[in-house]
Amino acid sequence: MVPTTNLVEQQAEAINSYTNLLVGKYSGNHQKSNKSVPGDKQFENWQNQLKTFDVFVFTEKKLYDVLKHGFIKIEDFSMIVFDECHHADQSHYYNLIMEDFFYYRFDPG
C-alpha cells in the first residue's frame, strides 16, 4: 500500500522486474469504480481480482474504499506493507485501515 498513484506504478514495476508474480494496480487512476454497476457485480469483480493476481499495489484511499464497501476483506491478504508509513498521522488512511478493519478483530468485547 502506497500513498500516491506514482508510487503504485513504481512499486508495481519493481515487483514485476524482480519476480514472476502477477501484480494488480489500484488507485484513483486504475480500476475506476463504476457507480452504475450494481454492488453485487462490483463484489464479483473484486473477487475475480483476488483470484487473478498474486500481489496488489493499492493507494491507501483505494484500499480503504474497497474495504469499506465490503468488496474485499482485510483477511484476504497474507501481508500488507505500509510504504511511507512514517508520514501517517492519526487521521491518515493507514491508521483508519488499521482501526476500522484490523484492530476490531482483536477486541475481546
Key traits:
2 strands; 4 helices; globular; two-stranded parallel ribbon; mainly alpha; 109 residues
Characterise the protein shown here.
- α2 (39-52) links the parallel β1 and β2.
- This protein starts with a helix and ends in a 7-residue tail after the last helix.
- With 109 residues, the protein is mainly alpha-helical.
- α3 (60-68) packs parallel to α4.
- It has one domain (5-106).
- Helices cover 43% and strands 7% of the residues.
Rounded to an integer in angstroms, the radius of gyration calculated over CA atoms is: 14 Å
List segments where confidence is low: pLDDT < 50 over at least 5 consecutive residues: none
Q: Return the domain count.
A: 1
Strand content: 5-15%
The averaged pLDDT comes out at 89
Q: What is the helix/strand order?
A: HEHEHH
Instruction: Let me know the number of strands.
Output: 2
Helix content percent band: 40-55%
Structural class: mainly alpha
Strand order of the largest sheet: 1-2
Q: How far apart are the first and last residues' alpha carbons, in Å? A: 30 Å
Biggest sheet: strands, sense, closure?
2 strands, parallel
Helix count, per DSSP? 4
In short:
The protein contains four helices and two strands; from the N terminus they run αβαβαα.
Give the topology, please.
Layout: H1 5-18, E1 23-26, H2 39-52, E2 55-58, H3 60-68, H4 93-102
Parallel strand pairs: 1-2
